[in-house]
Amino acid sequence: MVKVTVCGASGGIGQPLSLLLKQSNLISQLALYDIVNTHGVAADLSHIDTHSKVTGHVGPKELEEAIKGADVVVIPAGIPRKPGMSRDDLFKINANIVRELAVAAANYAPHALMCIISNPVNSMVPVVSEVFKKYNVYDPRRIFGVTTLDLVRSSTFLAELFNKDPRQVNVPVIGGHSGVTIIPLLSQATNVSFGDLSEEQVQQLTKRIQFAGDEVVKAKNGSGSATLSMAYAGARFTLNVIEAVFGGVSRTECAYVNLQADPNGGAQNVWRIAGDKEIDYFSVPVEFGKNGIQRILPIGKISKYEYKLLKEAVAELKSNIVKGTSFITDDSKL
Ligand code: NAD
Ligand code: LMR
């Protein structure tokens, strides 16, 4: 019996993500929450002949019912970018939305695995974590920023270059989820010979991955950002976590997490390479197990260029983290 609540379920990501989750036999209840249209989306999805029961909940009065007892809460709620905006420009509106949802989760589903999609992810994961701390229900092993789209894009773009099947090409992506904080470790890509790429190709590909979100924002021309590829990535991440936690299968994926989830494991590796012990959150390869994060895996050997990228990412990441953290710690009403 696994209850999954999707918050922001009527949105551009929320709808296709819910459709993909509806196909899983591991989910028994799919609770769809949004401030608009959720009953319609739920009625529609509920006709699909798969295992889970779909329920729709609209508006703050129905939030408790939506989230109560959830095993997994997925949050793609909030506004997306328009051309010319940074993810950080979304902070003010989205932090308020994510705080409200985190408070509900801390009250009604304190043990839920929290999968945060809303941007800026680099700050929203600290927002959720700090709310959980205030409610004394914090477990860093259970709160994740979903950065899977960066992995999906890296596989696609690199496989295109080598004319390979993208599913066979895996690239770890570490750091965070915005511009220069996105660090694809192309030197560790599987099933391609990295040595065949010129320095210029590596740099071009890295930039394309770091700014791939802008490609979509520009092409959508004011109507939003990536939704379908994100729904795919979000479902892949959520189902991997569910399979590991409830299905007893070992699953590994990169995610943006609090390094205190496994301070003696791969976190040491990040602190040493980043040269900054104060970095609290980072996207790292994670092994999931029955309690959420079982192990943060070592980052492994990285190239000189990747090392330089990592150094460049730290300052921005730190300021994103402080912004999210202080949004809650300075909030005397919570
Ligand atoms: P959207 O506008 O299409 O959908 C957002 C939904 O959130 C809407 O249905 C809206 O009604 C709902 N919402 C607003 N306030 C809410 C509240 N208080 N409670 C519950 N729901 C609420 O936007 P989208 O394209 O689906 O994007 C959603 C978010 O995901 C954006 O912040 C976007 O930047 C982010 N995103 C993240 C990634 C990633 O890789 N992590 C990728 C793409 C988009
Ligand atoms: C993405 O990477 O596509 C998302 O973070 C959305 C955006 O604003 O670019």
What does this structure look like?
- This protein has about 325 residues and is an alpha/beta fold.
- The protein folds into 2 domains: about 5-145, Rossmann fold (3-Layer(aba) Sandwich), CATH 3.40.50; about 150-330, Lactate dehydrogenase/glycoside hydrolase, family 4, C-terminal (L-2-Hydroxyisocaproate Dehydrogenase, Chain A, domain 2, Alpha-Beta Complex).
- Helix content is about 45%, strand content about 15%.
- Strands 3-2-1-4-5-6 form a 6-stranded parallel beta sheet, sandwiched between helices.
- A hairpin with a 2-residue loop joins strand 10 and strand 11 (about 290-295).
- Helix 1 packs across helix 9 and helix 5 (about 120-135) crosses helix 11.
- The chain is globular and about 55 Å long.
- It starts with a strand and ends in a 5-residue tail after the last helix.
- The mean pLDDT is about 95.
- The structure holds nicotinamide-adenine-dinucleotide and (2S)-2-hydroxybutanedioic acid.
